[in-house]
Amino acid sequence: MDFFDSDGVMIAYQVFEPAPGGQIDTDVPVLLIHGFASNGRINWISPGWVTFLTELGRQVIVIDNRGHGESEKLYGEHDYDARKMAQDAERLLDHLGVGRADVMGYSMGARICAFLAMYSPERVRSCVLAGMADNLVRGFGRGDKIAAALLADDESSISEAEPKAFRRFAEKTGSDLKALAACMLSRGHKIDRQMLTKISAPVLVVAGDADDVAGPVEPLVAMIGGAKGVVLPDRDHMNAVGDRGYKEAVSEFYESLRN
């Protein structure tokens, strides 16, 4: 694990070199941005994404978002504005001397990816928004309850299933619950249709057909000019991450960028 200073915040990251004989001939790396309460290892390494992409001949950069994984923990809601988190990703590219990348984000990571594509389009060759679809614009709407669950003294006091599931996942990943609550309560994550017009890079939207966190794929695809969409059958927010169809869709999308 390596670290760099992103405007005073220590951010952890890893770089994986392409495997010999990869199929895709490009010097553009893939930047992977994980979801809420996760980290690079859980979201991208364990489900086989890093191996999959390096075997395609790609250099892969994996970031731990601020407040997550091995990166510095912050406790103010303002610290987790999505644009600040996107700036962490952009500064990582600067730190590594990378001009632009194929950026893929899952869930919260997809939102960060969208902000990077909207406000620093020259750094994003392509954008994969996974585990986040129509709710990228509509919003999640349950953040207050999830934050309260993260801050609860005792899990037994959490009555609703979804907030309890977030709490259990955060504990399973060894996350800092107070930092995550601040991240969940941040109001700087909103995206509207007009903002999406700023995205000029090719976009692929991927989500499971049972993913209530992401929402349906088709409405978001319709909002982004030229975007492609893939719906993963019988997949929800948790089990879509390592889905074979998801990986195949990304491989085909990256192959299309060569043409």
Describe the structure.
By secondary structure, the protein is an alpha/beta fold. It has one domain: Rossmann fold. Helices cover 38% and strands 18% of the residues. Strands 1-2-4-3-5-6-7-8 form an 8-stranded mixed β-sheet, with helices on both faces. Helix 3 crosses helix 4. It is globular. The termini are far apart. The model has no long low-confidence stretch (mean pLDDT 95). Keywords: Hydrolase.
Q: What is the averaged pLDDT score?
A: 95
Largest sheet: 8 strands, mixed
Report the end-to-end length measured between terminal Cα atoms: 35 Å
Radius of gyration: 17 Å
- Run of helices and strands: EEEHHEHEHEHHHHHEHEH
What best-fitting shape do the alpha-carbon axes yield? globular
Annotated CATH topology: Rossmann fold
Number of helices: 11
Query: Helical proportion?
Result: 25-40%
GO molecular function: triacylglycerol lipase activity
Domain AB hydrolase-1: 29-132
InterPro entries: AB_hydrolase, AB_hydrolase_1, AB_hydrolase_fold
Keywords: Hydrolase
SSE layout:
Elements: E1 2-6, E2 9-16, E3 30-33, H1 40-45, H2 49-55, E4 60-64, H3 82-96, E5 101-106, H4 108-119, E6 124-130, H5 135-138, H6 143-151, H7 161-172, H8 177-185, H9 193-196, E7 203-208, H10 217-223, E8 228-232, H11 244-256
Parallel strand pairs: 3-4, 3-5, 5-6, 6-7, 7-8
Antiparallel strand pairs: 1-2, 2-4
Helix pairs in contact: 3-4, 6-7, 6-8
Top keywords for this entry?
Rossmann fold; globular; 259 residues; single chain; alpha/beta; 11 helices
